[in-house]
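Please, structure for the following, as tokens.
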Amino acid sequence: MTEQTALPIDVAQPDAPAPALPSPVERAALALNSTQTERDLQALATKHASITEIKDKAGREQAHGAAMELMRARTLIEKISKETRDDATKFSKAVIAEENRLVSIISNEEKRLKALRDAWDAEQERIKRESAERERQRIEQHQKKLATIRGYLDTARGARTSQMVMDLINRLVHIDLSDMEEFEAEAKQVRMSTETAMYAVHDQLKGAENERARLAAERAELERQQAEAQRQQQEREAAQRAEAERLAAERAELERMRAEIEAAKAPPAKPVEPFVVDGTVVPTKKVIEALASTGHTLADVDLVDTAPATEGAEIRMGFDMAMSMPVITHDINKTPSDAPPATSLIKCIAFEYGVDLETACQWLCQRAADFEAWTQPAAETV
């Protein structure tokens, strides 16, 4: 029998110590008197070994009697065993009933105490879980901040300008790492490496921007040069057109003057005497030119006496004199040598063409040969 477990309460014990109870095997052997019964059964098992064959009725009865003897021994053992088991079953049930009665006395208290214990354990488990969850969230928050720092590099790689990258760098270096606790050293290292990589991205974008700016400046300068060349070309073309127009005008004027000179060189239909105005001889050619500019000829002029010329009339000698005088008299007593002063001729030309006296004088000198060429016939005619 196993040793009894000591109870945590005082249980009434008999005055004399109880003998140790036999084990279940020993109790079973005692109930069946196994030691003696085993010897008897061994003897009985060999008692009828001589019966090996039945030859007649007497032999059958002998074999039947021997078998019945063995059966009675067996059934006796079984009967005693069953009675012992039934008693053990009743004892077991009685023990179980007594167990339940005794246990019921303390079971509720046990349940109450266990409930208190389990509630405390559950609270401690809840506190432990909450603490673990807070720790997990704390670490996760730090990991998220580390991931955010690392993510600045990917954001910088997607930036369009170097200034955007520089703004990201400025934001990165101002991230507060004082709340990173045991991750602060790692966060500083991650930030430093991320910043270095972002500066490389910035330099790459800056180089590309500078190259684009250089190309844009070159294009702008080329466009400016092209525009300037176009403007200069337009100015040259305008100047060439103006020069061509001026030359055309000069050629037209030259042709007109040449035509006039040729017309003036043509001999008159009849000899014409020199014209005299207020005692001054006016060359016939001049008179013809003056009349031609108004659409008249010498035939349209009435040869009558004219009124005396006003003071200073010599200034308007030549073209204006012939056109302004209503009647030109023909004085045969005047000689061709009675010409107006040279200053008067110069003043007349300057006034007519709206230039200064020096220019008028230069014109006279330049055309002196022409004058001599077309005035010689008229002198011969006179």
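The first strand starts at residue 275 and ends at 277. Confidence is low (pLDDT under 50) at residues 1-6, 298-337, 378-382.
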